[in-house]
């Protein structure tokens, strides 16, 4: 039976019993695991010819199943060949491929100030990978952080395909009318690709999604095709994968999500390891953000939504590898290699969702989707520039003692801006860029659901700027013996020395015996010396050293 299915469809869908959970990692190295049911012990999987032949070497009993895209009846799927996006009364439909392309074009015609159609790849079939780029004043250059939503990397998981077309429509039509949408478009550049695998979705023909395949035209699961830190496939083996890698390497994205179907849950990094083996640097941030999404979705949905297997699945939220380990996932690539935060969003238990259920799933999820976008504006934000020219600098932004496994971020070479989503707390930051001294900023306080703004200048002033004395400042040119005296300052406890950029270059507690601080190790220049006393009085001295 399996051989006949492979002959007819190029991929086979099947299940098998797993007695040892540790074996899932071995299976996932040769086939595409789709789900693991911890209650029944069944693993569900897809395989192309090569993968299935490797699976047979395990000598594991299996059962061939009907492909999910063939279990939804044709009369449950409303395919629409022509869509006028300014006159949609119901979203209970899937577009034909031609209608999909037309919709992405119409958005640009109707909202030229807010939307740009971006084609990142034309496939051998002639179908295209298309993004909508959405922001206020879309034709103008700006320094807004970028956010990305994509869907249907598995061609037979279509709920997100519809929801992302609707999200584009919702954002464009509610700008200037809805405060949340207006805030997002004024402060973010939002990239949305409703279908990342059109060849898989329209396997049968461009007029129907019935019979869609998980894999692409070559029957490759693209969510197992990305480089990852454990088992590294050859990058760019599929044109869709190559196009996405090029996109995120050429543009800085802060956060993203990739939408799937077949279960209802949120899967956060890592897929390549269990949480006992390795957790993401922002593991607890991920838990907070994922439960915020799930809790909001559950509030607006039936009780059973986002609750697979009850409490055993942590109310719809899982660390990827704790469910089952997979290698080559897009999620792990984006987090490990592309310096952004991405999770896997499983929207519906049914992969090819009947179209009369699409409206309900929008109602369940769209508020959570908007909330997730907002998270990319929280944490630590700022700009890195050259101290003398003001030009933007591409710099690595690292949270000392916190970041690991490439969780650091980079400032943009275009405008110097950076965004580092992070849980509330106090952080020390290291900033590094080629050709510049390393800079450290300590004690950065981050509040929940807020942004701490920090503008950073790198380099050394080529000439000292002039200063104007402020209240409670004294000028001490050429202090004797390269020391700053604290005589006459009763209760002096600490000195802080700042350079002309405001960077802290020296800090020392007063030990109570010396009557001065040695600054001979500092380069010649002008510094602001801040002296703290027990009486919590502050005296700023402007010195030339």
Kindly state the number of beta strands: 28
Structural class label? alpha/beta
Return residue spans where pLDDT drops below 50 for at least 5 consecutive residues: 464-469, 474-481, 535-545
Oligomer: single chain
How many strands, which pairing sense, and closed or not: the largest β-sheet?
8 strands, mixed
Question: What would your notes on this structure say?
Answer:
By secondary structure, the chain is an alpha/beta fold. Helices cover 22% and strands 29% of the residues. The chain has 12 helices and 28 strands. It has helices spanning 2-9, 24-28, 49-56, 97-110, 159-174, 179-187, 198-201, 239-250, 283-299, 320-323, 330-336, 358-375, and strands at 12-17, 32-36, 42-47, 63-65, 79-80, 94-95, 115-122, 128-134, 146-151, 189-193, 253-260, 263-268, 317-319, 341-348, 379-386, 396-399, 409-410, 417-420, 425-432, 439-446, 451-458, 473-477, 483-485, 492-498, 504-509, 516-518, 526-533, 538-544. It has an 8-stranded mixed beta sheet, sandwiched between helices. Helix 9 links the parallel strand 12 and strand 13. Helix 9 runs antiparallel to helix 12. The longest helix is centred in the C-terminal third of the chain and has 18 residues, at 358-375. Mean pLDDT is 90; it is low at 464-469, 474-481 and 535-545.
């Amino acid at each position: 039976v399996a051989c006949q299915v492979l002959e007819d469809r190029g991929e086979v869908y099947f299940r098998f019993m797993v007695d040892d959970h540790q074996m899932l990692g071995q299976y996932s190295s040769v086939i595409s695991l789709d789900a693991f049911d911890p209650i029944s012990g069944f693993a569900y999987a897809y395989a192309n010819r090569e993968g299935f032949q490797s699976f047979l070497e395990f000598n594991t009993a299996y059962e061939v199943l009907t492909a999910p895209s063939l279990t939804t009846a044709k009369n449950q799927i409303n395919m629409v060949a022509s869509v006028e996006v300014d006159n949609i009364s119901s979203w209970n439909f899937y577009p034909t491929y031609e209608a999909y392309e037309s919709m992405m074009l119409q958005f640009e015609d109707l909202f030229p100030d807010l939307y740009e159609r971006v084609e990142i790849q034309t496939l051998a079939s002639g179908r295209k990978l298309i993004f909508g780029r959405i922001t206020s004043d879309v034709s103008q250059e700006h320094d807004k952080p970028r956010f990305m939503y994509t869907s249907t990397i598995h061609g037979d998981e279509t709920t997100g395909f519809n929801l992302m077309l609707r999200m584009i429509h919702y954002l464009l039509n509610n700008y200037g009318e809805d405060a949340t949408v207006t805030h997002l478009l004024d402060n973010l550049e939002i990239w949305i690709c409703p279908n990342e695998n059109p060849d898989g979705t329209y396997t049968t023909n461009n007029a129907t999604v019935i019979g869609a395949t998980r894999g692409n035209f070559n029957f490759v699961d693209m969510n197992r095709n990305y480089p990852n830190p454990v088992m590294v496939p050859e990058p760019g083996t599929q044109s869709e994968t190559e196009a996405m890698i090029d996109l995120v390497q050429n543009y800085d994205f802060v956060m993203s999500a990739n939408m799937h179907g077949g279960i209802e849950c949120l899967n956060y990094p890592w897929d390549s390891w269990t949480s006992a083996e390795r957790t993401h640097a922002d593991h607890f941030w991920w838990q907070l953000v994922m439960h915020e999404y799930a809790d909001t979705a559950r509030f607006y949905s039936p009780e059973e939504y986002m609750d697979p297997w009850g409490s055993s699945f942590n109310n719809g939220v899982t660390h990827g590898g704790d469910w089952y380990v997979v290698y080559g996932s897009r999620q792990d690539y984006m987090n490990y290699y592309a310096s952004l935060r991405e999770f896997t969003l499983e929207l519906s238990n049914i992969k090819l969702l009947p179209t009369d259920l699409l409206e309900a799933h929008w109602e369940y999820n769209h508020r959570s989707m908007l909330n997730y976008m907002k998270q990319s504006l929280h944490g630590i934000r700022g700009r890195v520039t050259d101290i003398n020219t003001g030009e933007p600098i591409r710099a690595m932004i690292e949270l000392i003692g916190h970041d690991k496994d490439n969780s650091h971020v980079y400032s943009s070479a275009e405008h110097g801006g950076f965004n580092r989503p992070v849980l509330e707390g106090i952080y020390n930051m290291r900033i590094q860029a080629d050709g510049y001294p390393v800079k450290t900023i300590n004690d950065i306080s981050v509040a929940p659901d807020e942004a701490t703004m920090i503008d950073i200048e790198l380099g050394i002033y080529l000439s000292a700027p002039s200063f104007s004395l402020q209240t409670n400042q004294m000028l001490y040119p050429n202090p004797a013996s390269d020391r700053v005296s604290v005589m006459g300052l009763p209760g002096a406890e600490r000195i802080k020395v700042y350079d002309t950029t405001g960077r802290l270059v020296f800090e020392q507690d007063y030990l109570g015996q010396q009557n001065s601080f040695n600054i001979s190790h500092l380069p010649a220049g002008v510094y602001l010396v801040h002296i703290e006393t027990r009486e919590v009085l502050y005296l700023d001295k402007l010195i030339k050293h």
